[in-house]
Specification:
This protein is of the alpha+beta class and about 290 residues long. It is built from ten helices and ten strands. Helices cover about 35% and strands about 25% of the residues. Strands 1, 2, 3, 4, 5 and 6 form a six-stranded mixed beta sheet that branches. Strands 8-9-7-10 form a four-stranded antiparallel beta sheet. A hairpin with a 6-residue loop joins β8 and β9. It is globular and about 55 Å long.
Length: about 290
């Protein structure tokens, strides 16, 4: 399952993009209850019981099903950095659960129910850029195009930001002007993604709903966002609820933008990781061993 970056400027709680950091899950045997037979990489920090993989697996195969399975898990998606680690776990559990049960299910609706919002789990399940709005008749999903010349520079510090903490700092209401400004910039941002137009991405990538409230939770975050732009990125934003940052840049400038953000984190906190990620356009599937 791919990682995902969400919000992306004015796309708060709606827009997400699948990126090439991956969670790999295998069913390796039966058990009385679900257990992690192995958990490596970032998955080493997963809880042994009651995690989202298990919950999603049971929702997709049917809550009434008895018995459990042993899972081998490896993840390159850092936890509590705003890169969709929980959405990837949910997507993996749903796909595996449906496969084991041999049943059809509306996995996206189940995923949104488990995740609580659509912007990460939709690209995790379907790939690419996805703009999703839950609706009474089922989720409405758009598939915006992304120009192949664009790359995504990602960096994060050692510090984590829990989703609950990031939600708690958001105001209960926002000025009317801020709401209008976000709405008017989203079309510019989507067209900038489609055409790789730097001017549209710069203008469209600005947020007035959540970033100013969440940046204080990310030591060095404001300086790192500026460093990405100085290194040639067209736009830079908090990824999801943080603490990772994502910058969109021409492919040739993306490594410098990622390194600039990580260097800023290192200067502020002593640690920083940089990655250049590609868009994962294909919907993930389940393969048999």
């Amino acid at each position: 399952m791919p990682a995902s970056t969400s919000n992306l400027g004015p796309g708060f709680d709606a827009l997400g993009i699948a990126l090439s950091l991956f969670l790999e899950v295998r069913v390796v045997g039966a058990s009385d209850a679900h257990v992690l037979a192995t958990a490596t990489g970032e998955a080493a920090d997963w809880p042994a019981e009651g995690n989202l993989l298990f919950r999603a697996f049971d929702r997709a195969r049917g809550e009434e099903a008895a018995g459990g399975f042993r899972f081998a898990v490896h993840s390159a998606i850092p936890i509590e950095r705003g890169l969709g680690s929980s959405a990837a776990a949910i997507a993996a559990g749903l796909l595996l659960g449906a496969r084991v049960a041999g049943r059809e299910a509306d996995l996206l609706t189940l995923g949104i129910e488990l995740e609580g919002h659509p912007d990460n789990v939709t690209p995790a399940l379907r790939g690419g850029a996805r703009l999703c709005v839950p609706a009474a008749g089922g989720p409405l999903v758009l598939h915006p195009a992304i120009h192949p010349s664009l790359a995504f520079a990602v960096a994060w510090p050692e510090a984590r930001v829990a989703t609950g903490e990031a939600r708690a700092v958001l105001p209960h209401s926002v000025p009317f002007a801020d709401a209008v400004e976000n709405a008017r910039r989203l079309p510019l941002f989507l067209e900038g993604l489609r055409t790789a137009d730097g001017a549209l991405l710069r203008a469209g990538g600005k947020d007035r709903l959540h970033e100013k409230h969440r940046l204080p939770l990310i030591p060095g975050g404001e300086r790192a966002l500026a460093a990405a732009l100085e290194a040639g990125a067209w736009t830079s934003n908090v990824s999801g609820s943080g603490s990772a940052l994502v910058a969109i840049a021409p492919r040739g400038s993306a490594p410098a933008a990622a390194d600039a953000m990580a260097d800023s984190f290192r200067a502020e906190t002593g640690s920083g990781t940089a990655v250049v990620a590609d868009v994962v356009n294909d919907a993930p599937g389940v393969t048999s061993e």
